[in-house]
Design goal:
This protein is α+β, with helices and mostly antiparallel strands. Strands 1-2-3-4-5-6-7-8 form an eight-stranded antiparallel barrel. The longest helix has 16 residues. The protein is globular. This is Lipoprotein. Keywords: Signal.
Length: about 170
């Protein structure tokens, strides 16, 4: 029987080399990875397993997440976010299923849909921050569906103009 010791050593060492390169453990899905990276924050899937999502931002000056997004969302009203250069970005969610997003002077239009939790919607075709979390008088742009509800910051907050919020 022929035995190639170098080949056997390579076969035995390959899994160790892959593990050293940062391969994710088998069985870890995207939601578990996001929760681990975000310090254990609950994801939508974890919420379904009985662990509730936080109801708002860590920063008390930011609006709380709406209990019912469809009731809190002011459709056809522009939510705005000021930029350091004095301009403002805006996001308008229309009741016909369309949106208009103005960022950095560029306008993008498309369609939107509610996510199953009724608190977030997805802007179809938007690559950067496509998920919108509805708050009382504000919208938060989120990177993806696995971001915990308390992971919001002022730079991703679009607010209603005072006259529209009344």
């Amino acid at each position: 029987m022929y035995c190639n010791h170098a080949a056997i050593a390579f076969i035995l060492a390959a899994p160790l080399a892959l593990a050293a390169c940062g391969e994710q453990p088998k069985g870890e899905n995207a939601e578990d990875f996001a929760a681990r990276v975000n310090g254990g924050g609950a994801t939508a899937e974890q919420t379904a397993r009985g662990r509730p999502q936080p109801d708002g931002p860590r920063d008390p000056s930011l609006p709380r997440v709406a209990a019912d997004g469809s009731k809190a969302l002011q459709q056809t009203a522009a939510y705005t976010r000021p930029n350091p250069d004095g301009t403002a970005d805006s996001l308008l969610i229309a009741n016909d299923g369309n949106f208009t997003l103005v960022e950095g002077g560029r306008t993008q239009t498309g369609t939107w849909e509610w996510l199953p939790d009724g608190k977030r919607l997805r802007l179809q075709g938007v690559v950067r921050q496509p998920i919108v979390l509805v708050a009382d008088g504000a919208l938060y742009r989120m990177q993806n569906e696995n971001v915990p509800f308390d992971d919001v910051t002022p730079d991703r907050t679009y607010r209603l103009a005072p006259s529209a919020a009344e």
